């Protein structure tokens, strides 16, 4: 297997998706499990587009964990960084949908957020060799919610900095992962200062920076930052990439399920950066076309249920953009 150009670190889990859009949690009587977890989604989407990727995370030594590892293998994701814990289960997240297909997270059944294997991700077991040749490390913020996995994120950031691996942060704020959501802001702010690329929703931008303007955010972050992408669902996104700015409307498609759309968007950006090299962002038209490509990858993902199952291949994206 080719050494991964992109390392995706964090949670892999099952989204237990309501089969009855429009019903509240207590009325749902039928569910379907879909593999998910933002970093795992990004890794799978990258491989489908044609960029080698590896996943780093901890899952349970249980049947759901086995299923997830097998899926990564089938897709072609490097699993060197997968850790297994025999004392905690693989995480399952309940997800309800409104009639338009938009999802909202509805908790972890009868378990506390701290009880799952991804909280046990160990800094001592990180695949150090993979960092030597990786071009990008993708991280989220959910693993900051737990002491052990937070140490692993800190170590991974240090390894990335040592090996000139660029860091791409998707904030992916989820208050229900934190025992005390009020504690999330400070560690996330500290992490944001260390990254090269920042992707966040309009709500997350307001929460962290009191603005949705990517130029203002890039100015506040200083010279290290290479890109800021602010996404707003069906409204599209605003971007600042190496000084080039713009906005891109979302494509008008029939939405089946929005799960994983942002992760596919992230994969689209990273795939193009790996294809064209980071200096391509100096050209305004190229920066614009990269955002358009990523928007198309996200649009194709929302047209089918599930995150990973719905992800397009490069030829699907090319056909879509041509049409």
Characterization of this structure:
The chain is an alpha/beta fold and 323 residues long. It has one domain: UDP-N-acetylmuramoyl-L-alanine:D-glutamate ligase (3-Layer(aba) Sandwich), CATH 3.40.1190. It is 36% helix and 22% strand. The protein is built from ten helices and 13 strands. It has helices spanning 38-49, 63-75, 128-133, 147-162, 185-192, 202-209, 214-221, 261-276, 284-302, 314-322, and strands at residues 6-9, 13-18, 31-36, 53-60, 78-85, 92-97, 103-105, 136-139, 166-170, 197-201, 227-231, 237-241, 244-248. The strands form two sheets. The chain has a nine-stranded mixed β-sheet, with helices on both faces. The radius of gyration is 18 Å and the shape is globular. It starts with 5 loop residues before the first strand and ends with a helix. 48% of the residues are buried.
Q: Helical percent range?
A: 25-40%
The radius of gyration over CA amounts to 18 Å
Q: Please name the CATH architecture.
A: 3-Layer(aba) Sandwich
| CATH class annotation | Alpha Beta
Distance between the termini: 34 Å
- Give me the side-by-side strand order of the main sheet: 5-4-1-8-9-10-11-12-13
State the low-pLDDT regions, or none: none
How big a fraction of the residues is strand? 15-25%
Q: What series of H and E elements makes up the topology? A: EEEHEHEEEHEHEHEHHEEEHHH
């Amino acid at each position: 297997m080719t050494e991964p150009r992109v390392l995706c670190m964090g949670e892999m889990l099952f989204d237990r998706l309501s089969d009855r859009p429009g019903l509240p949690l207590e009325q749902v009587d039928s569910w379907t499990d879909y593999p998910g977890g933002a970093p795992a989604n990004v890794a799978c989407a990258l491989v489908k587009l044609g960029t080698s990727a590896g996943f780093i995370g901890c899952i349970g030594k249980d049947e759901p964990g086995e299923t997830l590892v097998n899926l990564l293998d089938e897709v072609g994701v490097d699993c060197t960084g997968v850790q297994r814990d025999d004392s905690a289960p693989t995480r399952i997240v309940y997800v309800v949908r409104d009639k338009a297909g938009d999802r909202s997270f509805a908790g972890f059944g009868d378990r506390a957020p701290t009880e799952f294997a991804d909280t046990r991700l160990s800094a001592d077991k990180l695949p150090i060799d993979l960092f030597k040749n990786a071009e990008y490390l993708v991280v989220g913020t959910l693993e900051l919610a737990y002491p052990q996995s937070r140490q692993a994120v800190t170590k991974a950031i240090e390894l990335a900095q040592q090996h000139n691996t660029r860091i791409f942060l998707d904030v992916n704020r989820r208050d229900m992962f934190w025992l005390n959501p009020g504690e999330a802001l400070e560690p996330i702010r500290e992490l944001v200062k260390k990254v090269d690329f920042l992707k966040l929703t309009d709500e997350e931008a307001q929460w962290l920076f009191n603005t949705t303007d990517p130029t203002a955010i890039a100015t506040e972050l200083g010279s290290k930052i290479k890109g800021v992408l602010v996404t707003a669902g069906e409204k599209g996104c605003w971007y600042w990439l190496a000084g080039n700015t713009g906005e891109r409307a979302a494509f008008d498609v029939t939405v089946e399920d929005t799960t994983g759309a942002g992760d596919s968007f992230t994969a689209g950006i990273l795939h193009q950066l790996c294809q064209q090299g980071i200096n391509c962002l100096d050209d305004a038209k190229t920066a614009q076309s990269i955002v358009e490509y990523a928007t198309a990858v996200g649009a194709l993902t929302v047209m089918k249920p599930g995150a990973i199952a719905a992800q397009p291949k490069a030829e699907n994206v090319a056909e879509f953009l041509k049409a």
